Amino acid sequence: MQAPYLLFLGDVEEFSAAKTAAGVNQWRRERVLAQHRLPGCTVDLGIAEMTPAEAARAGARTMIVGVVNVGGFIPEHWVATMVDALEQGLDLAAGMHQRLNDIPAIAEARDRTGRAVLDLRQPDRGFLPGSGRKRSGKRLLTVGTDCAVGKKYTALALEAGLRARGVDADFRATGQTGIMISGRGVAIDSVIADFISGAAEWLSPDAAPDHWDVIEGQGSLFHPAYAGVTLGLIHGSQPDALVVCHEPVRTHLLGFDYGVPDLRRCIDMNVAAAQLTNPEARVVGISVNTSRMEPAAIDAAIRDIEAQTGLPCSDPIRHGVDRILDVLLN
Amino acid sequence: MQAPYLLFLGDVEEFSAAKTAAGVNQWRRERVLAQHRLPGCTVDLGIAEMTPAEAARAGARTMIVGVVNVGGFIPEHWVATMVDALEQGLDLAAGMHQRLNDIPAIAEARDRTGRAVLDLRQPDRGFLPGSGRKRSGKRLLTVGTDCAVGKKYTALALEAGLRARGVDADFRATGQTGIMISGRGVAIDSVIADFISGAAEWLSPDAAPDHWDVIEGQGSLFHPAYAGVTLGLIHGSQPDALVVCHEPVRTHLLGFDYGVPDLRRCIDMNVAAAQLTNPEARVVGISVNTSRMEPAAIDAAIRDIEAQTGLPCSDPIRHGVDRILDVLLN
Question: Tens of pLDDT along A174-201?
């Protein structure tokens, strides 16, 4: 994806629906030029507002469809804007389940303008089954007690923290928002089931001995729909270090009638799974998502989790990740 | 797939490469008419030998490509025989990774003759993510310490044994050979990763309270390449009962530099995984693959495993599955 970006928000009405655009804007602000919203959109990233034509004149190269919805489809009334972006000379990128390239009006405009239309959720290459072969370099994987608990955010914060300490580190994206932020990666939930761990192996290849790949986790080993993806990602990542992400006030898995697993049990299961391909795997910290907690309750919750686990706990947004990095690098 | 079948063996030289044809012939002999072998083929199923033309005259309806190879591709020198089968009026079915329908000469003959060309490994429908919703009826899943250890064979033997006792039971296929044997199912390793457990839910829908679905397992929770598929299949199957399949003389996973897991640990991990979606899940027996053991060593090995696990152990081929069924039905 060529920067600078125009972030398309459609007409979404909830901030969570714009999480892809928000993630790109938060973590790659230097590549973002402006946002473009349709009438009815009530989400605002607080950046410049431009139409595709204005953005193209200002130097934008790619319009990113920065929204998600249930089912991952492109509403029909968004298509004209996407065609307009191509006609203005912008490339177009999205991470929906529905492929932009399968929409006739967009495919026609793509062929007519010669612009690139990138469906980032669909792997653009095949994979092999995992080999289990030990690779050089070091790897950290974020795992969690549920989906949408902070695994991507934590991995990005750890990448930034490592680089700030002069450690060579790369964020490795495994979901569409992560791919848009880093510009590469593989949507691990979209590969063929046989190749989950093989795709994860491909994602973090052999590297220098002191290099850290910080791999974005997906799902949870305790999730009735997605645990298979999580387990294959763990085995293929063969992590030296795990950071467990957790939201203390969440009692049930998002959208499911299943309880959030006990944190201690979650740690043990993830370590057991990771030790299959890396006997040295260990948990180096707990990333605590306190975004929905009363400020007064946060310190006690953090202390409780530290006492329960014996590991450094922090909310990357409130506290940074320095204490986790201290354990990781020692 | 319409019977009777002509089983195409190509020019394979090892029995293991003909396992799909052998499985169909063993478990659905009443639907098999003959085999067809190319020059150089040294495998013989011990049944009638016919060309596609002879088979068509004798009433065959489908030629099944009954061989597997590394990579799952169709060798070019097999294509003429496949085209000939279509021209003789036979349908064509295969379970390779490479699609018959993607081979130009076969697609052309398909269109010209109007015959059906079935790529059984590719799901012919989409799936949803797993819901975790508890379904009616009862389910048994075979799991194992490795791939190719007897999970399909055990499930078929259990289906046959249940039916012999007057219990309503259905074998549910999760791999291409199983699909060819039962005529339906889903190649669970070929669905999109996000939908593994959803496909497994689809495979064994709500059923009568006393009905047993006997689900063919895949891979192993301890396999560095395929454990994700195994875990998603466990969660989506939500089995009431598990039978663990094991080969005592195997020390390493087939083709991998990983040890076979300890049987006790394998039992515990599978039960822990299954209890996420079915808290009643339990192991009801061990299926022991003794095909490569000295006859004199078998009894002692079985006794050892029974003492170690407290569960009935039997090789379905040598001993049948009655003792396992006694535990299952009580």
Answer: 999 999 999 899 999 999 999 999 999 9
pLDDT reported for residue A293: 96
CA neighbor of A188 nearest in space, from A205, A200, A170, A177: A200
Q: Residue B135: its pLDDT value, please?
A: 98
Residue A71: pLDDT over 80: no
For residue B187, give how far its alpha carbon lies from the nearest alpha carbon of chain A (Å): 10
Q: pLDDT value at position A40?
A: 95
pLDDT(B270) > 80: yes
Work out the number of other CB atoms within 10 angstroms of the CB of residue A204.
Answer: 24
Q: What is the mean pLDDT of residues A103-122?
A: 95
Q: Are residues A204 and A282 in the same domain?
A: yes
When pLDDT is averaged across residues B182-190 and rounded to a whole number, the result is 92
The amino acid present at A111, given as its one-letter code, is D
Residues A154 and A26 reside in one and the same domain: no
| Whether residue B66 is found in the same domain as residue B185 | no
Separation between Cα atoms, residue A11 and residue A23, nearest integer Å: 18
Q: Which residue has the tokens 């600078």?
A: A4
CATH of the domain at B204: 3.40.50.300
pLDDT at residue A65, rounded to an integer: 96
Residues B63 and B205 in one domain: no
In a domain, B132, yes or no: no
C-alpha span between B165 and B134 (Å, rounded): 27
Contact between B228 and A225 using a beta-carbon 8 Å cutoff: no
For an interface test with B, the pick among A73, A98, A131, A192 (most B C-beta atoms closer than 10 Å) comes out as A192
Split into its structural domains, chain A has a count of 2
The CA R_g of chain A, rounded to the nearest whole Å, is: 20
- For chain A, what is the mean pLDDT? 96
Cβ pair A171, A155 in contact under 8 A: yes
Structure-token match 């680089």, residue found? A163
Whether A87 and A187 map to the same domain: the answer is: no
B24: domain CATH number is 3.40.50.720
**Is A114 in contact with A25 (CB distance < 8 Å)?**
no
| A143 in the same domain as A201 | yes
The reported pLDDT for the residue numbered A124 is 75
**How sure is the predictor about B72, in pLDDT bands with cuts at 50, 70 and 90?**
confident
Report the percent of chain B where pLDDT is more than 90. 92
Percent residues over pLDDT 90 in chain A: 92
Cβ pair A258:B276 closer than 8 A: yes
| DSSP 3-state of B22 | helix
Per CB distance under 8 Å, which residues of A are interface residues toward B? Answer: 129-132, 188-194, 196-198, 221-222, 224-233, 235-236, 256-258, 269, 272-273, 276-277
By the 8 A CB rule, do B120 and B94 touch?
yes
Closest residue on chain B to A132 (Cα): B224
Q: Give A-chain residues touching B228 at CB under 8 angstroms.
A: 193, 196-197, 228-233, 235
- Amino acid letter at B201? E
Q: What is the ipTM of this complex?
A: 0.92
- The pLDDT, as a whole number, for residue A125 is 81
Owner of token pair 């006492």 = A307
Residues of B with CB under 8 A from a CB of A: 129-132, 188-194, 196-198, 221-222, 224-233, 235-236, 256-258, 269, 272-273, 276-277
Q: Which one of B84, B119, B154 terminates a domain?
A: B119
